[in-house]
Structure formats: C-alpha cells, structure tokens
Amino acid sequence: MMTQPVIALLGGTFNPIHLGHLRMAQELVESLQLSEVRFIPAANPPHKPAPDVGAEQRAAMVRLAIADNPVFTFDDRELHRTGASYTIDTLQSLREEMGEKVSLILLMGSDAFTKFDTWHRWQEIIQLCHIALVQRPLTADEHAPDVDHNLPKSLGTFLHNHYTDHGDDLHSAPAGFVTMHHITALDISSTEIRNTFQQKRSARYLMPDSVIDYIQAHQLYDI
Known about the structure:
With about 220 residues, the chain is of the alpha/beta class.
C-alpha cells in the first residue's frame, strides 16, 4: 500500500499540446499507478529555439487540455523563472515544496534520453527523481533495440547503474531509478499541427476541441 504520493512530471514547450501528450500521460497513470501528472510548460526551453507562441498562451492551452482530468494538474513554476528553463531547477523547487519522501518521476521520450548527457547538471537529476523513458510500440517490421542501444558511454553506464524493470521500485524510493514503458503509438506532433493550421486544414481529433477554439480565437499559427 502506498504511503506517499507518486507524482509524474511532464515538461515541454507544448506548442501546442495535443492528444499524443494526453494519451501518453493517461496510460502512464495506469501502468505506473500514479497519483498525479504535473504538466510543466517550459518558458525558455534550453535545447530548442524560442517558440513562436509565447509561454502564457502555451500555458493557457495546457490548462484547457487537462481541465477535465482530475489526475492531471498544471504547474507554472517555470513561467515565473528568468533564464533557461532547466529541469534541475524545477526538481529542486519541487523537492523544497514536497519534501524528500514523495516519489517524483520525470517522463522522458527515449529519443530525448540519447542527449540526456547534454542537459544542465544531468548527473544530479537522478538524485531528485526517477526517470520513466517512454517508447512507442514497435511495428511489425521493427526490432526492439537493446535498452542502451546507440547511447554514449556515459549514458550507457548511467542506465546500467539505475535501470529497473520493477515498477514497485518507483513507489518504494523517492528517486534513483530509470525504467522504460511502451505506449500506444499516436503519430501526432506539434510541428504537424502547426503546419495544419498554417495550411487552413482541420486539427479536429488531433487535440481537444477547447484548444482548437483557443488557437482559432487568438489566431495562433497563422502565416
């Protein structure tokens, strides 16, 4: 029986948020037995060009998208910091707020993990949270790679030292483990959605209707 909450953190630019983000979070709620998923929009993402839509509008779309799910919550702490939105700063802030016993799980795409060693103070992050790497299911003509396939040596060693197949480990400790989970493949991307709006095509069934209405009302992504 869980004595402490298990909270997942989903950061990103969300430019814009879409059903791929939401379905991934919902599946992980069930597979990891999460108490909460916090959506944390990045104001100034350090590894991407500055988004063409401002942080406040991207945040407003996230609020609309998650409004009807009681397990999804909005976290605006990165919007109130100046400078780059570093994950290590967000985690330290959350630990100061929640204490040392709550299990925190950073959700990360397996592709993004191949560059994890370029993140600011990356080796300290695992001391503050677990990491759940998210993979889409394989198609019939694909083969499952080794868990450390094509990783730099530093990341291969990191993964070997922290990896677990046991979901209970993420409940029994507040931080320190890396795990991997497959999710339903939804071939939706924020880039494609921006292109859809620019080409005056419908984005229905790619994202919540409330977000589509917001984008149209504010004329976002128009050329």
